[in-house]
TrEMBL record, chains A, B:
Pfam families: LacI, Peripla_BP_3. SUPFAM superfamilies: lambda repressor-like DNA-binding domains, Periplasmic binding protein-like I. Residues 2-56 form the HTH lacI-type domain. This is LacI family DNA-binding transcriptional regulator. It comes from Microbacterium fluvii.
Length: 335, 335
């Protein structure tokens, strides 16, 4: 069996350089790294990562905990995290922590405590008190995306602003009967959804429309928005002239329902979302754009900064959503 | 600092039992395991996993390589994999290997060669020759989902059958002008999409309809199906009476396009998909149902069997798709 000395000899570098290239620790030029990797491949040499970890005290692995992987925002953040980790030779261990499941309890009680990662990125996790306590016990840097945790670094958008801006856009178009659609179903009312509801309520109150403020609850998904909108829009007496949806998925579900019910968008109903989902363009959806891939990448940068500098104080990176006007919104038709 | 002996003493078990409970190796009852974990938590004791790995020769980690995480099928398979791994105390390291990217090259050249996992599950990977060679070099068990690799175990559905059954359903309803929609765009024409096209062609040929066989290419996504269908359905002279879509996402895109163009489904156009996507019900989509979560779970079972029994021969598990008739298909209207 070949050893590191054989790899170094074949690549024409020192053992220390070969070791750095193979473990990803310390700087090695891309050309040297390629040469060492080729030499290792041709000799069939692979370093024992367990031995590497013990020697360096680093797992070269980042844990990512998220409650969903099959929703657009979470999948996009995950892609945004994976790319810069790959570039740095770091592994990504995924913990899928759906709220209220036994699997989630095991992740907090058992998996995270094993600390098989140098640091953790928590995406939309909203830990309960007991879970938060477990996270604190880990003693590894944590960066949250869309979190509200004090004491750790956070990457997010200003949700209050996004919903406020969406609502103001409709008010500027002459709408007064504006419903906020989505969130608030079941036990787990996400904080991000509550913050958006608050932004809507503030904009309505500022425009003197507090009395017509209405929140219609729905699951936060396309089918959830569809179901709630079928119910809401079916009766023309209670139908609003405009909707602010908690996110694009709910907005898209509402547009699909409108088409099915023969309620023209934007002729009889204006709809604004928050996200700029991959389907937003297909539905001509006016929305507040956020860029979850950038949020994922920013979380990686922050985490690496904390690893380099253990006593670095927590930072909050807040990105601003941007209004994109497409044709799902229009001026209120004069009666 | 507390050691394993302190944990064992507090939990009232032997050191060997405490070690088994903490590392997940060997059998320990759930009650004992809880007691040991509580003792470890109260003492702040966590085993060094690097030391554990060196001692047991196992990483207790499964690698999952997939080209996408943000498409329904892949996200569902991932959920199906995560659940049984969690139950067994195994970590999941995710490698997001988009075709044609530099990240993918690094995964094959570098990440996989480090072998930081006991085994690998490759989902819809379709490795090129060079990549396949790298996979063989790893010398760890590999199970493919939707793969066509010889030499490793595979979990899949019979794609040929699914597309054939979808086509036969339309033929039985009196349709003859049936288009196969989707796939075949760009460099990466997935084998699964080709197999489905072949099933459609076979069913058409058997019904004496070989001369009206038509494949319209599209990206395999809802927007991809939408774009291709807008083009195809816009002209009533070339519009078919029915579509077999390569998957539900393409079928749903086509239905959204039909509604936009005022082409009633199923009145003027019948549409069948393959998947039973989470949105299928919302669009009343007739489809061939597959259950990707079950495929993910089956892949985990197979991988564990290979780990327990290193010389076990490769197995192929083929699941059958099931026709679900909703209201996106109907008998051909008599002219």
């Amino acid at each position: 069996m070949s050893g590191i000395a054989d790899v170094a000899a074949l690549a024409g570098v020192s053992k220390a350089t070969a070791s750095r290239a193979l473990t990803g620790s310390g700087h090695v030029s891309q050309a040297t790294r390629s040469r060492v990797l080729d030499a290792a491949a041709s000799l069939g040499y692979v370093p024992s990562t367990s031995a590497v970890s013990l020697a360096t005290g680093r797992t070269r692995n980042v844990g990512v905990v998220m409650p969903y992987v099959n929703r657009w925002f979470f999948a996009e953040v995950l892609e945004g995290i994976q790319q810069p980790l790959l570039e740095r030779g770091l592994d990504l261990t995924l913990y899928d922590a759906k709220p209220g499941t036994e699997g989630r309890a095991r992740i907090f009680d058992d998996f995270l405590a094993r600390k098989r990662f140098d640091g953790l990125i928590a995406v939309g996790l909203e830990p309960e008190d007991r879970e938060l306590q477990r996270l604190m016990q880990i003693g590894r840097p944590i960066v949250s995306v869309v979190g509200a945790d004090e004491g750790s670094s956070v990457v997010s958008i200003d949700d209050d602003y996004a919903a406020r801006r969406a609502t103001e856009h409709l008010i500027a178009l002459g709408h007064t009967d504006i419903v906020f659609l989505g969130g608030g179903v079941g036990e787990h009312w996400a904080q991000v959804d509550r913050r958006r509801l608050t932004g809507y309520e503030a904009a309505m109150a500022e425009a003197g429309l507090a009395s017509t403020t209405r929140h219609v609850r729905s699951e936060v998904s396309i089918p959830g928005g569809y179901d709630a909108a079928v119910d809401l829009l079916g009766d023309s007496r209670t139908r609003p002239s405009a909707l602010v949806a908690v996110c694009d998925e709910v907005a898209i579900g509402a547009i699909i329902a409108s088409r099915r019910l023969g309620v023209p968008v934007p002729g009889a109903l204006s709809v604004v979302g928050i996200d700029d989902h991959e389907y937003a363009e297909m539905f001509s959806l006016t929305t507040l754009q956020q860029l979850p891939r950038q949020q994922g990448a920013a979380a990686v940068e922050l985490l690496l900064a904390h690893l380099d500098e253990p006593h670095r104080p927590p930072t909050s990176v807040q990105m601003q959503a941007r209004l994109i006007v497409r044709s799902s919104t229009s001026a209120l038709a004069q009666a």
